[in-house]
Task: inverse folding
């Protein structure tokens, strides 16, 4: 029975997470757990487990006697997330390119193809596919702690990725930058990988600063 509950909690986690990232769940309003449980056809136990996990991931906050809330997007948080990515990701991806196997390279190619397909046919999957591509460039390094830190930052960045891609033309630019990055990574050109990724992350941060300052 416990295995079933964990599986159900995981499914609920995925559904709610997608709603948060897409903006379907409004910020700073309490999540109505009774209504959500009824809508999903589940009990409150796996729902609460999923909400608690989403809080651990930084997508929700909780207040005593008021429940869970979707965290607001903010310029300060974006600054911190993307500065940390700049400190870790370019160097890790560059070093990973040097040791990547043929299988690792195939995974990276497939991840970018999936991202391109999502950008064309399934926009609700773009943030997730973007994360998968970026992590595919780091995973071959085999540095578990570094990977975990970057993965955590990628999860927190997903809502900002969605926000960043809203203006027209941003998706085309991201597409070009990703393909140039992958070409350099496949060529094991560490300097170009680090340079391209630094520019890519940095340009996104500059855009977000302008979008999120109100």
Result:
């Amino acid at each position: 029975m416990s295995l079933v509950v964990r599986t159900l909690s995981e499914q609920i986690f995925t559904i709610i997470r997608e709603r948060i990232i897409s903006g379907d769940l409004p910020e700073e309003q309490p999540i109505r757990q009774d209504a959500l449980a009824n809508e999903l056809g589940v009990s409150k136990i796996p729902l609460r487990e999923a909400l608690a996990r989403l809080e651990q991931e930084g997508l929700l906050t909780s207040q005593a006697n008021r429940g869970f809330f979707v965290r607001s997007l903010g310029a300060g948080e974006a600054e911190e997330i993307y500065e940390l990515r700049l400190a870790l990701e370019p160097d890790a991806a560059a070093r990973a390119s040097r040791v990547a196997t043929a299988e690792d390279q195939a995974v990276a190619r497939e991840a970018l193809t999936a991202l391109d397909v999502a950008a064309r046919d399934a926009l609700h999957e773009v943030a997730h596919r973007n994360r998968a591509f970026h992590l595919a460039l780091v995973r071959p390094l085999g540095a578990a702690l570094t990977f975990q830190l970057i993965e955590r930052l990628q999860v927190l960045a997903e809502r900002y990725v969605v926000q960043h891609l809203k203006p027209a033309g941003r998706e085309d630019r991201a597409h070009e930058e990703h393909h140039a990055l992958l070409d350099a990574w496949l060529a094991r050109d560490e300097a170009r990988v680090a340079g391209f990724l630094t520019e890519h992350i940095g340009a996104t941060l500059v855009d977000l600063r302008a979008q999120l300052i109100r």
User: Anything to note?
Assistant: The longest strand covers residues 60-63.
